[in-house]
Amino acid sequence: MDAGAASYEEFGHCLRELEHINVLTLAYRPTLHWLRPFLKRGTELSILDVACGGGDMLRRIERRGGNMRLDLIGVDLNPWSKRFARAATGSARIRFATADIFHFEPERPIDLIISSLFTHHLNEDQIVDFLRWMHRRARRGWFINDLHRHPLPYHGIKLATALFSRNRLVRNDAALSVARAFVREDWQRMLRRAGLAEQAQVQWYFPFRLCVSCRKQ
Question: Phi-psi bin for 51: left (phi > 0), alpha (psi -120 to 50), beta?
Fold first, then answer.
C-alpha cells in the first residue's frame, strides 16, 4: 500500500478493514499464542513489531500484558501508518516509528521481534537478510506470522473481498498477498540460507497461516 497511490482517508479505511479481516480469519492468534509464555513469565518485556501497519497487533499485546512493564515499538515504512497508529492508540507503552527496517536500530535492546503479513512483500534475498537481522537483535526470540500459499485461501479471499470489501486497496491486495506467500519448503530453504535451520521452526496454524519462529530463552 503506497501512500502516493491513495489518500490518507482511503489508507486509513484500508487499515480498519484489514483489522476486521484479521479478526474474522483468526490472524492474531498465532502471534499471541507464541507470546503467551513471555507475557506470563516476567514483569518486563520489550517487543518490536516490524511493518506494524495501524498498530492493532501491539494494542492486543498490551491488553494481554496486563500490569507488566511493556516497551512496545511499531516500525513501518509508510509514514501514514505512524499517523494512523498514533491516533488509534491511547497508550504511552506503545511507540511508533517510520523507517526502513534494514536501516533501523532500536534505541534499547529488544527482547522479542515480531512481524505479521510482511515477508510476502520481500524477495527471497531480502527475507534471508531479515531473518539474520532479527536473529542478531532479538535477545529472547522472534516470530514471523504470514500466509500459506494455497488455492483455497487465494480463491476464498478473492471472492470475499470482491463481495464485501468497499476498499480498493484491500480488493487489489488481498488475493495477491496469498499468491506471493510461501509454502513450508520455501521457508526451510530460506532458513538454511540464513544459517538458522537448526534454531528456527516452521509451524502451520488454522486457517492457512504459516509461521516461522525462534525461541532463544
Answer: left
Task: Say if CB 193 and CB 128 are below 8 A apart.
Answer: yes
**Best CA proximity match to 210, nearest among 188, 64, 90:** 188
Domain interval for residue 114: 3-215
Eight-class DSSP state of 154: H
Q: What is the CATH number of the domain that holds 49?
A: 3.40.50.150
Q: How far is CA 185 from CA 63, 149, 202, in A?
A: 35, 11, 9
The torsion defined by the Cα of 142, 146, 150 and 151, in degrees rounded to 10, comes to 170
Q: How many domains does the chain have?
A: 1
Q: Is the pTM of this model over 0.70?
A: yes
pLDDT tens digits for the chain (217 residues)?
A: 544 477 899 999 999 999 999 999 999 999 999 999 999 876 799 999 999 999 999 999 999 998 899 999 999 999 999 999 999 998 889 999 999 999 998 888 999 999 999 999 999 999 999 999 999 999 999 999 999 999 998 898 989 888 888 888 888 888 899 999 999 999 999 999 999 999 999 999 999 999 999 999 7
Name the residue among 203, 58, 81 with its Cα closest to residue 144.
Answer: 203
What are the cell numbers at 7?
Answer: 489518500
